[in-house]
Design a protein that fits this description.
Layout: E1 2-7, E2 18-23, H1 29-37, H2 41-47, E3 58-62, E4 71-78, H3 85-101, E5 106-109, H4 120-131, E6 151-156, H5 163-188, H6 196-210, E7 213-217, H7 219-225, H8 228-234, E8 242-249, E9 258-262, E10 264-268, H9 288-303, E11 308-318, E12 330-332, E13 338-340, H10 348-359, E14 366-371, H11 375-381, E15 386-390, H12 393-406, E16 410-412, E17 430-431, H13 439-448, E18 456-460, E19 466-467, E20 477-478, H14 483-494
Parallel strand pairs: 1-6, 2-4, 2-5, 5-6, 9-11, 9-14, 10-11, 13-17, 14-18, 15-16
Antiparallel strand pairs: 3-4, 7-8, 8-11, 12-13, 15-18, 19-20
Helix pairs in contact: 3-4, 4-5, 5-9, 6-9, 8-10, 9-14, 10-13, 12-14
């Protein structure tokens, strides 16, 4: 979807639909002017409680040639004192959904005029682009009836934000949303397409496009290095496990990097500890952490961020073949620690532990992993927030601040040593699964054993990577969670 800028009076701008933001407790000059042009129509809607400006409400009305715009789309912003960038982002998403429902392909928007001049335009662009996303690659019927957006024009006032600044904000939003789109597309692909080889090829293409360093460690090299935990998970599949490594040098060759590690289980049957059949088709999403890392590198390189990044994606398919690892097996991880595999469906922490130890060769200034790791996190936090754990308070706080800014909410969980008691094995150093109690925390505690003294944070995105129902900026399906959060975090570091 193309977004353009135009310095124009909204009341004189011809467009199929004009989008305006409406407060619940205030009326601005544009609202009053539109109301006057429509002979008090907006006031009557408010008086009859047909549209009051509450959050997550929209109302489309035809202007009947009383304005150059054919339609007026009213978007609720709630109370004026409570307006922030996230509310504008959601409002833009609501607007684009309403335009899709009405099959209006092009429009003009003034939503950004209601917010902070320094940040509102970028937020509205993000909401528009994120809300316009759809994944229809495998639909073949009714192609001629399929709807596509053409573009949106953001109307700028004659004074205030200049076109160069506004254009830069649009460029930033486009680059970030391109990363989110990549992550969503990868998670949406079926498991017979998005294999470990597919992720590796995607990484190669990304590296070629942005001139990144790329290395793919294949099965024989993983075995030679001693990444036996990763190898154990992938042994039951015809598709071999791999370790994908991408390097982006936005701050030159000398600065220590931030390392991002993403879980890349391309399909999770549970292995020998096989999952129930109901809902297993959604286990193609178990590589959402790896997809977020690829999306973040796409966005960071597109933005030209002045930071050094390393993206590491351990990827495997967890299948119950005759060669698959079994409950009771013991493997020696890359760190030298031995692990008793008590549950082959607790495979994410096995591939991550080798990747986290491998990442330390880069001497990272910080290390962040993302994983659809535990159903226990969904039980604890539902689908509203990702679980956040780590060993460095400052890193945790920076991620919290980034989450607040971008709207991808996180909730910190403790990592007290007592949680590790259930992860101790009778025959090895550790076991990969303990009791169900505090399951997302004990999984995080397990990962902590492989980060040494590196500043580290863990994001459990099991509840936020996939949506069962559409939201203003997120379609039903893959959310692309993690990309905007990490980019916000990295932009703060850059500053």
């Amino acid at each position: 979807m193309k977004i353009e800028l135009l310095s124009s009076n909204p009341l004189k701008h011809a467009t199929p639909a004009l989008v305006i933001g409406c407060f619940e407790d205030a009326r601005d000059e544009l609202y009053n002017a539109c109301d006057a042009a429509l002979a008090g129509c907006l006031a009557r809607l408010a008086a009859n409680k047909e549209f009051s400006g509450k959050v997550n409400t929209v109302r489309m009305i035809h202007t009947l040639a009383k304005l150059p715009a054919e339609r007026l789309l009213l978007v609720g912003l709630g109370k004026k004192a409570e307006l922030d960038d996230e509310r504008l982002r959601q409002a833009a998403g609501n607007a684009i959904q309403a335009l899709r429902a009405a099959r209006v392909a092009s429009s003009a928007s003034t939503l950004h005029l209601a917010g902070n001049p320094r940040t509102a335009l970028e937020a509205v662009c993000e909401g528009t682009l994120l809300g316009s996303y759809s994944f229809e690659q495998y639909k073949t019927k009714n192609m001629e009836e399929r709807f596509n957006f053409e573009g949106m024009t953001l109307l700028l006032p004659p004074k205030g934000l200049n076109r160069k600044e506004a254009g830069a904000m649009i460029g930033t939003a486009v680059a970030i949303c391109r990363g989110v789109t990549l992550a969503r597309d990868l998670v949406s692909q079926p498991g017979n397409v998005a294999t470990t080889g597919y992720l590796a090829e995607t990484a190669r293409e990304l590296a070629l496009r942005h001139k990144l360093a790329c290395r793919i460690l294949e099965m024989d090299e993983l075995e030679q290095l001693g990444m036996n935990a990763l190898v154990a998970v992938g042994k039951g599949s015809a598709e071999p496990p791999r370790l994908i490594v991408l390097e982006y040098r936005g701050a030159g060759d000398t600065g220590r990097p931030v390392v991002l590690v993403g879980k890349g289980i391309t399909f999770d049957s549970g292995g020998i500890s096989i999952k129930p059949g109901a809902g297993m088709e959604e286990m193609k999403t178990d590589m959402a952490g790896g997809a977020a890392v690829l999306g973040t590198l796409e966005a960071a390189a597109g933005l030209g961020l002045g930071v050094n990044l390393v993206g590491i994606i351990p990827t495997a398919e967890n299948m119950p073949d005759g060669k698959a690892c079994k409950p009771g097996d013991v493997v020696t991880s890359l760190s030298g620690q031995t692990i008793e595999i008590t549950n082959t469906d607790a495979e994410g922490r096995l591939i991550l532990c080798d990747a986290l130890h491998y990442a330390q060769k880069y001497r990272p200034t910080a290390m962040i992993d993302l994983a659809t790791l535990t159903g226990a996190c969904v039980v604890a936090l539902g689908h509203e927030a990702s679980g956040l754990m780590g060993n460095d308070k400052r890193l945790i706080e920076r991620l919290k601040q980034a989450a607040t800014r971008c709207g991808e909410r996180v909730w910190e969980l403790p990592l007290w040593d007592e949680y590790g008691e259930v992860m101790k094995s009778d025959i090895a150093d550790l076991k990969n699964a303990g009791s169900r109690d505090g399951g997302c925390i004990t999984a995080g505690w397990f990962l902590k054993q492989f980060v040494a003294k590196t500043r580290w944070a863990h994001l459990d995105i099991a509840g936020t990577a996939w949506c069962d129902k559409a939201r203003p900026c997120i379609p039903k399906g893959a959310s692309g969670v993690g990309v905007r959060l990490l980019i916000q975090f990295l932009r703060a570091i850059e500053k």
